[in-house]
Amino acid sequence: MLVLARTRDETIMIGDDVEVTVVDVRGEKVRLGISAPRNVSVHRKEVYEAIRKENREAGKIAPADVAHLPQSKEGPAMPSARPETIDREAHAPFIRAALDEARQGLAEGGLPIGSVLVRDGQIIARGHNRRVQKGDPMAHAEIDCLTNAGRQKTYRDTVLYSTLMPCYLCSGASVQFSIPKVVVGESVNFAGAPDFMRSKGIDVIDLHDEACVRLMSDFIQAHPDLWHEDIGK
Question: Is the whole model's pTM more than 0.85, yes or no?
């Protein structure tokens, strides 16, 4: 371990591409600004460990995962596709659009959670968390998105995207309108209610997107009071 003494605005280089700058020093707390290439993930250690743990758990196969599969004479059938087989490229444009909404919410002084509603590969509505902006405790990102969609004859041919796993409020809206699929950026910072949605027949896909994890993690660290207000703690 290399130990260095640095003061405010002084920089440390890690290799040729990673730059760490001391932004502020307040007592025992030091704020660091980290600049790294897009292909280098930067997380607080506890977030990194949570991602690793979740990925390990996702890779495990429990007996219940294959219990419903038909048995052949040769032995048990092969398990169905694991999370690693998710077509991330197909979801990428829509989760990026949801991220844009989340960043807009952050720029407005609100929580960085965004959502889009998609039909036939086209975004038909967008929204982001506006609880702070509107002073409305119900204005979660998914609710804002569905409100902006206006009246729809059906939602059975739509996909709802969100940067964060929906809470019970927003999960309930998905169940109420029979949305068949919900795709989320991450569930590291908030577990949400995926089991509830799945129990109602909704296909829930968790992309474990690093940009979504980082955006929400940074916000929770900087504004814990707003975050706890949002989830009712």
Answer: no
